[in-house]
Amino acid sequence: xxxxRNICVIDDDAxxxxxxxxxxxxxxxxTEIFPSAESFLERPHFRGIDCxxxxxxxxxxxxxxxxxxxxxxxxxxxxxxxxxxxxxTMHEKAAKSGVANILRKPFDKAILLDAMDSIFQxxxxxxxxxxxxxxxxxxxxxxxxSDNP
Length: 149
Prior knowledge:
Helix content: 25-40%
Pfam families: Response_reg (PF00072)
Protein name: Response regulator
Keywords: Phosphoprotein
Domain Response regulatory: 6-120
Largest sheet: 6 strands, parallel
Strand order of the largest sheet: 2-1-3-4-5-6
CATH superfamily: Response regulator
InterPro entries: Bact_response_regulator (IPR050595), CheY-like_superfamily (IPR011006), Sig_transdc_resp-reg_receiver (IPR001789)
């Protein structure tokens, strides 16, 4: 039995949002999509979010800045960052922001789904053994960059 998970996709590219929305729904996830960090922050509350799928380079507030703001506010939502840019400095900042994983666009759907499975397996183990949700820093895998085209 699959547990229903709510994934928020934040990306300024409408075609990416649509493709990820379709993919995630096709494997049983619930999704909410947002074109910017600011539109996500307008959400009435942040309860019930199981994972953020967050683009690094967004107009206005960047994905890294959003992640930092959420973390500093005590909202430890497991986050997968996405980027189409190979800037090592940006990847280093992203890795230090406490994300669960960094995926380089375009990525294969299997890589995304494996990364999400890893987050949810870790979250389940943490809840079973400690009775609390995990923070992105508690994931089994270290942040990594996927170079799969």
